Amino acid sequence: MGEDEILMLQSNDGRIVTVPKSVALLSETIGQALESASRTDMTPIPLFQVNYNTLKKLVAWMVRHAQINPSKDCQSGEEEGKHDGKASCILDWEREEFDSMDRNELFALMNAANYLGVSPLSRSSAAFVAEKLQTMSVEDAREYLSLVDDFTDEERDKIRQETLWTEKRCL
């Protein structure tokens, strides 16, 4: 199998997305599948947990990432001595892509990246969501993450009283 070989990836709904092998190898899962199975034919690699639209986005991200090939690992600006609230591991084009997705699309892409072991995408998308959450109120963050507030009013008041010193300290 040469580096220019085209692989076929099959989404959970049976649709095919093609990708150059060199790009597909950004995925640890696909790399392991290729190593463990003596592939001599062009049968599609089934990806049972990824739908077609998400797979198209993931492959497009991998193609673009392979073209750019960023050399630095994900670091926060804070570690570099400057912190503007934005993680430096999110490239401008990634930020634009993530911004253009709704929450469900973004989380589906994150899950696919995790499932397929595409670490750079996992890191940059997680950093993007973390950035986004930093600017939200607790209520907005709960809504964004689809979390139910299971505290009673009394429990919330008790927690506020117990942590009041932190608010005073920050002033």
From TrEMBL:
<dbReference type="InterPro" id="IPR016073">
    <property type="entry name" value="Skp1_comp_POZ"/>
</dbReference>
<dbReference type="Pfam" id="PF01466">
    <property type="entry name" value="Skp1"/>
</dbReference>
<feature type="domain" description="SKP1 component POZ">
    <location>
        <begin position="7"/>
        <end position="66"/>
    </location>
</feature>
<comment type="similarity">
    <text>Belongs to the SKP1 family.</text>
</comment>
<feature type="domain" description="SKP1 component dimerisation">
    <location>
        <begin position="123"/>
        <end position="165"/>
    </location>
</feature>
<dbReference type="InterPro" id="IPR011333">
    <property type="entry name" value="SKP1/BTB/POZ_sf"/>
</dbReference>
<dbReference type="InterPro" id="IPR016897">
    <property type="entry name" value="SKP1"/>
</dbReference>
<comment type="function">
    <text>Probable essential component of SCF (SKP1-CUL1-F-box protein) E3 ubiquitin-protein ligase complexes, which mediate the ubiquitination and subsequent proteasomal degradation of target proteins. Regulates cell proliferation during embryonic and larval development.</text>
</comment>
<dbReference type="Pfam" id="PF03931">
    <property type="entry name" value="Skp1_POZ"/>
</dbReference>
<dbReference type="GO" id="GO:0016567">
    <property type="term" value="P:protein ubiquitination"/>
</dbReference>
<comment type="pathway">
    <text>Protein modification; protein ubiquitination.</text>
</comment>
<keyword id="KW-0833">Ubl conjugation pathway</keyword>
<protein>
    <recommendedName>
        <fullName>Skp1-related protein</fullName>
    </recommendedName>
</protein>
<dbReference type="InterPro" id="IPR016072">
    <property type="entry name" value="Skp1_comp_dimer"/>
</dbReference>
<dbReference type="InterPro" id="IPR001232">
    <property type="entry name" value="SKP1-like"/>
</dbReference>
<dbReference type="InterPro" id="IPR036296">
    <property type="entry name" value="SKP1-like_dim_sf"/>
</dbReference>
<dbReference type="GO" id="GO:0006511">
    <property type="term" value="P:ubiquitin-dependent protein catabolic process"/>
</dbReference>
